[in-house]
Amino acid sequence: MYRNDGFRELERQECLRLLAKAPVGRIVYTRQALPAVLPVNFCLDADCAVLLRTAATSELVRAVDGTVVAFEADEVDAATHSGWSVVVTGSATVVTDPAEHERLVRTGPRSWVPSPREVFIRIEPELVTGRELVGGHSMYGLDLSS
Protein backbone atom coordinates (compact mmCIF):
# COMPACT_ATOMS: atom_id res chain seq x y z
CA MET A 1 0.00 0.00 0.00
CA TYR A 2 1.13 3.53 -0.67
CA ARG A 3 1.36 5.75 2.38
CA ASN A 4 -0.38 9.13 2.36
CA ASP A 5 -2.64 8.31 -0.58
CA GLY A 6 -5.81 9.30 1.25
CA PHE A 7 -6.81 5.86 2.51
CA ARG A 8 -6.59 4.51 6.04
CA GLU A 9 -4.34 1.47 6.35
CA LEU A 10 -5.96 -1.46 8.14
CA GLU A 11 -4.29 -3.69 10.71
CA ARG A 12 -4.02 -7.43 9.99
CA GLN A 13 -6.79 -8.45 12.42
CA GLU A 14 -9.16 -5.84 11.02
CA CYS A 15 -8.38 -7.05 7.50
CA LEU A 16 -9.19 -10.64 8.45
CA ARG A 17 -12.42 -9.57 10.18
CA LEU A 18 -13.58 -7.74 7.04
CA LEU A 19 -12.45 -10.56 4.77
CA ALA A 20 -14.53 -13.06 6.75
CA LYS A 21 -17.68 -11.04 5.89
CA ALA A 22 -17.11 -10.96 2.13
CA PRO A 23 -18.94 -13.59 0.04
CA VAL A 24 -16.76 -13.28 -3.08
CA GLY A 25 -13.15 -12.39 -3.78
CA ARG A 26 -10.64 -12.61 -6.60
CA ILE A 27 -7.61 -14.86 -6.89
CA VAL A 28 -4.69 -13.35 -8.81
CA TYR A 29 -2.26 -15.82 -10.34
CA THR A 30 -0.12 -16.40 -13.42
CA ARG A 31 -1.62 -18.13 -16.46
CA GLN A 32 0.75 -18.84 -19.34
CA ALA A 33 3.17 -16.16 -18.06
CA LEU A 34 0.43 -13.51 -17.92
CA PRO A 35 -1.53 -12.15 -14.93
CA ALA A 36 -4.94 -13.74 -14.46
CA VAL A 37 -7.77 -12.75 -12.11
CA LEU A 38 -10.68 -15.04 -11.31
CA PRO A 39 -13.69 -14.23 -9.10
CA VAL A 40 -14.39 -17.00 -6.57
CA ASN A 41 -16.44 -17.67 -3.49
CA PHE A 42 -14.34 -18.57 -0.46
CA CYS A 43 -14.16 -18.79 3.30
CA LEU A 44 -11.49 -18.37 5.96
CA ASP A 45 -10.30 -21.42 7.86
CA ALA A 46 -9.77 -21.31 11.64
CA ASP A 47 -6.10 -20.39 11.07
CA CYS A 48 -7.20 -17.54 8.72
CA ALA A 49 -6.04 -19.30 5.55
CA VAL A 50 -8.20 -18.50 2.51
CA LEU A 51 -10.02 -21.60 1.25
CA LEU A 52 -11.35 -22.11 -2.27
CA ARG A 53 -13.23 -25.11 -3.63
CA THR A 54 -13.02 -25.99 -7.31
CA ALA A 55 -13.11 -28.84 -9.80
CA ALA A 56 -10.10 -31.12 -9.47
CA THR A 57 -9.50 -30.85 -13.22
CA SER A 58 -9.73 -27.05 -13.39
CA GLU A 59 -7.05 -24.90 -14.95
CA LEU A 60 -6.88 -23.00 -11.65
CA VAL A 61 -5.65 -26.07 -9.77
CA ARG A 62 -2.83 -26.67 -12.25
CA ALA A 63 -1.85 -22.99 -12.30
CA VAL A 64 -1.71 -22.24 -8.57
CA ASP A 65 -0.63 -25.40 -6.73
CA GLY A 66 2.72 -24.63 -5.11
CA THR A 67 2.89 -21.00 -6.26
CA VAL A 68 2.57 -17.61 -4.62
CA VAL A 69 -0.77 -15.93 -5.38
CA ALA A 70 -2.70 -12.89 -4.27
CA PHE A 71 -6.29 -12.93 -3.10
CA GLU A 72 -8.40 -9.77 -2.89
CA ALA A 73 -11.86 -9.02 -1.56
CA ASP A 74 -13.58 -5.70 -1.06
CA GLU A 75 -16.78 -3.89 -0.34
CA VAL A 76 -17.57 -0.61 -2.05
CA ASP A 77 -20.44 1.86 -1.76
CA ALA A 78 -20.29 4.03 -4.86
CA ALA A 79 -22.99 6.40 -3.56
CA THR A 80 -21.03 7.35 -0.45
CA HIS A 81 -17.56 6.91 -1.94
CA SER A 82 -16.60 4.55 0.85
CA GLY A 83 -15.37 1.01 1.19
CA TRP A 84 -12.48 -1.25 1.95
CA SER A 85 -10.12 -3.61 0.16
CA VAL A 86 -8.04 -6.45 1.62
CA VAL A 87 -5.25 -8.35 -0.13
CA VAL A 88 -3.80 -11.65 1.09
CA THR A 89 -0.54 -12.80 -0.47
CA GLY A 90 0.79 -16.28 0.15
CA SER A 91 1.51 -19.78 -1.05
CA ALA A 92 -1.36 -21.71 -2.60
CA THR A 93 -1.54 -25.48 -2.24
CA VAL A 94 -4.10 -28.11 -3.07
CA VAL A 95 -5.25 -29.97 0.05
CA THR A 96 -4.20 -33.60 -0.47
CA ASP A 97 -4.56 -35.04 3.04
CA PRO A 98 -7.74 -37.18 3.03
CA ALA A 99 -8.70 -36.31 6.63
CA GLU A 100 -8.23 -32.60 5.98
CA HIS A 101 -10.24 -32.88 2.76
CA GLU A 102 -13.11 -34.55 4.64
CA ARG A 103 -13.04 -31.83 7.31
CA LEU A 104 -13.22 -29.16 4.63
CA VAL A 105 -16.12 -30.91 2.90
CA ARG A 106 -18.04 -30.28 6.14
CA THR A 107 -16.67 -26.85 7.10
CA GLY A 108 -15.18 -25.30 3.99
CA PRO A 109 -16.72 -23.19 1.25
CA ARG A 110 -19.59 -24.59 -0.81
CA SER A 111 -19.25 -24.69 -4.58
CA TRP A 112 -21.51 -22.36 -6.49
CA VAL A 113 -20.95 -24.60 -9.52
CA PRO A 114 -20.48 -28.12 -8.09
CA SER A 115 -18.53 -30.72 -10.03
CA PRO A 116 -18.22 -34.49 -9.51
CA ARG A 117 -14.67 -34.30 -8.14
CA GLU A 118 -13.70 -31.21 -6.17
CA VAL A 119 -10.55 -30.13 -4.35
CA PHE A 120 -9.76 -27.39 -1.87
CA ILE A 121 -7.08 -24.79 -2.42
CA ARG A 122 -5.50 -23.26 0.68
CA ILE A 123 -3.82 -19.83 0.53
CA GLU A 124 -1.58 -19.21 3.53
CA PRO A 125 -1.94 -15.59 4.72
CA GLU A 126 1.75 -14.67 4.68
CA LEU A 127 1.10 -10.99 3.94
CA VAL A 128 -2.25 -9.36 4.76
CA THR A 129 -2.82 -5.71 3.86
CA GLY A 130 -5.87 -3.55 3.57
CA ARG A 131 -7.14 -0.03 3.30
CA GLU A 132 -10.35 1.84 3.82
CA LEU A 133 -11.97 5.02 2.58
CA VAL A 134 -14.73 6.31 4.84
CA GLY A 135 -17.51 8.55 3.57
CA GLY A 136 -15.49 9.96 0.70
CA HIS A 137 -13.08 11.80 3.01
CA SER A 138 -9.37 11.47 2.52
CA MET A 139 -6.80 11.67 5.29
CA TYR A 140 -6.17 15.23 4.05
CA GLY A 141 -9.71 16.25 5.02
CA LEU A 142 -10.85 16.63 1.44
CA ASP A 143 -14.43 15.71 0.63
CA LEU A 144 -14.18 13.46 -2.42
CA SER A 145 -17.94 13.16 -2.92
CA SER A 146 -18.38 16.45 -4.77
List keywords for this structure.
single chain; 146 residues; alpha+beta; 18% helix; 43% strand; globular
What does this structure look like?
With 146 residues, the protein is of the alpha+beta class. It is 18% helix and 43% strand. A hairpin with a 4-residue loop joins strand 6 and strand 7. The model has no long low-confidence stretch (mean pLDDT 90).
- Residue fraction in strands: 35-45%
SS-based class: alpha+beta
Q: What count of helical segments does DSSP give?
A: 3
- The helix/strand series, from N terminus to C terminus, equals EHEEEEHEEHEE
Determine the fraction of residues in helical runs and give it as a percent range: 10-25%
Biggest sheet architecture = 9 strands, antiparallel
Head-to-tail CA distance between termini: 25 Å
How many beta-strand segments? 9
Radius of gyration computed on alpha carbons: 17 Å
Broad shape: globular
State mean pLDDT (0 to 100 scale). Answer: 90
What low-confidence regions span 5 or more consecutive residues with pLDDT below 50?
none
